[in-house]
Amino acid sequence: MPLVEAIQAHGFAAEHIHADDTTVPVLAKGKTRTGRLWVYVRDDRPFGGRDPPSAAFFYSPDRGGEHPERHLANYAGLMQADAYAGFNRLYEPSRKGGPIIEARAGRMHGASSSIAILYQGAPHQAVRSMVHRRIWEWTALRGGAPEPFCQTDLF
């Protein structure tokens, strides 16, 4: 099996994946066009998973919803992604192969009030420590610098 296919097979065998896309410059005759690079990530290590992480990349010339539909044609499981409307048909119950379960990704700033409520309502220091640890893990996964937040009591 070619390496690319092995990485894709491993990634899409996960119970949950993270999906995203970004622009990529594409050299065209006499100019640069904007294409899309799609990535599907498997990484369960922060949650105690033992399988190695992987990232499968796909290119498309545009952001049409048919691209993730084709990439994920054989995937069934939980998918964390942004609110891109092109993913919507993947979540339909009538989808061939079954629906993908949506776990919409939020932004830390948008979730901060919910985290504050959870934190303030926590009856035990152990629960507060767990909230701090999850915030640290989430922020670290996103490439942030969570240490000051986690070392101080902002709530």
Any key phrases for this structure?
155 residues; alpha/beta; 2 domains; 5-stranded mixed β-sheet; 5 strands; disordered C terminus
Task: Give the SSE map.
Blueprint: H1 3-12, E1 16-28, E2 31-42, E3 54-60, H2 66-71, E4 78-81, E5 101-104, H3 108-120, H4 125-141, H5 147-151
Parallel strand pairs: 1-4, 4-5
Antiparallel strand pairs: 1-2, 2-3
What does this structure look like?
By secondary structure, this protein is of the alpha/beta class. It has two domains: 3-104, no CATH class; 108-151, no CATH class. Helices cover 33% and strands 26% of the residues. It is built from five helices and five strands; from the N terminus they run αβββαββααα. The protein has helices spanning 3-12, 66-71, 108-120, 125-141, 147-151, and strands at residues 16-28, 31-42, 54-60, 78-81, 101-104. The protein has a five-stranded mixed β-sheet. A hairpin with a 2-residue loop joins β1 and β2. α3 (108-120) runs antiparallel to α4 (125-141). The longest helix has 17 residues, at 125-141. The radius of gyration is 19 Å and the shape is globular. The termini are far apart. 12% of the residues are buried. The model is unreliable at 107-114 and 146-155 (pLDDT under 50).
Largest sheet: 5 strands, mixed
Structural class: alpha/beta
Number of strands: 5
Distance between the termini: 52 Å
Short description, anyone?
The chain has five helices and five strands. The chain has 155 residues and is an alpha/beta fold.
